[in-house]
Design goal:
By secondary structure, the protein is mainly beta. It has three domains: about 20-150, Sandwich (Immunoglobulin-like), CATH 2.60.40; about 155-290, Sandwich (Immunoglobulin-like); about 305-385, no CATH class. It has seven helices and 21 strands. The protein has helices at about 5-15, 115-125, 215-220, 250, 270-275, 295-300, 335-350; strands at about 20-30, 45-50, 55-60, 70-80, 90-95, 110-115, 125-130, 135-150, 155-165, 175-185, 190-195, 210-215, 225-230, 240-245, 260-265, 280-290, 310-315, 355-365, 365, 370-375, 380-385. The chain has a four-stranded antiparallel sheet, covered by helices on one side. Strands 3-2-5-6 form a four-stranded antiparallel sheet. The chain has a four-stranded antiparallel sheet with strand order 12-9-16-15. Helix 1 runs parallel beside helix 7. The protein is elongated, with a radius of gyration of 30 Å. This is Copine-7.
Length: about 375
Amino acid sequence: MNEVQEATSPATSLSGPATCVSKVELRVSCKALLDRDTLNKSDPCVVLMVQNNGQWVELDRTEVIKSNLHPLFGKVFGLDYYFEEVQKLRFEVYDIHGTHSIGTREDDFLGGMECTLGQIVAQKKMIKPLLLKYGKYAGKSTITVHAEEISGNNGYVELSFCAKKLDDKDLFSKSDPFLEIFRINDDGTEQLVHRTEVIKNNLNPVWEPFKVSLISLCSCDEERKLKCLVWDYDSRGKHDFIGEFYATFREMQKISSGNKVSWDCVNPKYKQKKRNYKNSGVVILSDLKLHRVYSFLDYIMGGCQIHFTVAIDFTASNGDPRNSCSLHYINPYQPNEYLKALIAVGEICQDYDSDKRFSALGFGARIPPNYEVSKSGQTFVFNHMF
């Protein structure tokens, strides 16, 4: 980069339009996928591609859901949304065979869909048909993408769950339990928040801690109902239902005061049929950690200040300041390129500095009163309102 570009780039970036960026989370589900397996159903996975300089690049991918043509993926895609940009996305669905890499066989491809992030954000919930090559429809297959914005006053919560004495659903071994948490929306629909890993052969599982945004968990509403389901995993996709319970984020926060937070895991069918039925186990929240996401405004309003320091090269390499071709040319009618950059930056920074005193480093300048040339840089402090 040449010296003119270095001098003018601060002015260009600060005087131009402000960048509108937001954090967005995308959740994906599919319906009526093609069945590519002979003896079982497809094992789908969704790959998210983004277009970068005309090329499609993989950004992330979901987990693989075994033997399921109507998968509801627990994976959350996190993206930065820029209002002023066209951000092209492509969702590709594959049937995964063991440890084979995605796309190794033509039959692995179950369909794809292209759109922009702006379209998803505008609709909040987008449902599109999946297409095979050459624009051919993949039967009645569809993909649904939900979008949620992570706002500045939001944050993340880290949750750790375990369970005790879950029902044994297997004949020759113990249950392989996993936990699903759904948020109940205002319209009564249910949105998957998180699906834990499977703990093999264990009626007292301890699941790995997981982190989720508050907007995803409860829409930042502490009283919003959460529906929690416990299942016994089956490799063929026919999971056995163990039980369910309902909770709120407010209930979960009671753990912070040292209280034990637990819920009876209840199977409604057993409760109706069995007179002495109590529960199918107990699910316990063993730990909760809140992680606040601080915005720039939070720091400023909390007392953070910005100090502005200037370093200027006065050496003759930039030319005689009396020459109009020099970057240091002193024009009686308008500021030179260096002054334009300093004013652009200084006008912004001065609002966040209480004493309005700015340091300046001069290299190669003749410093009064002796007017000796500074070789290592001399510091000045000046008061100036830009």
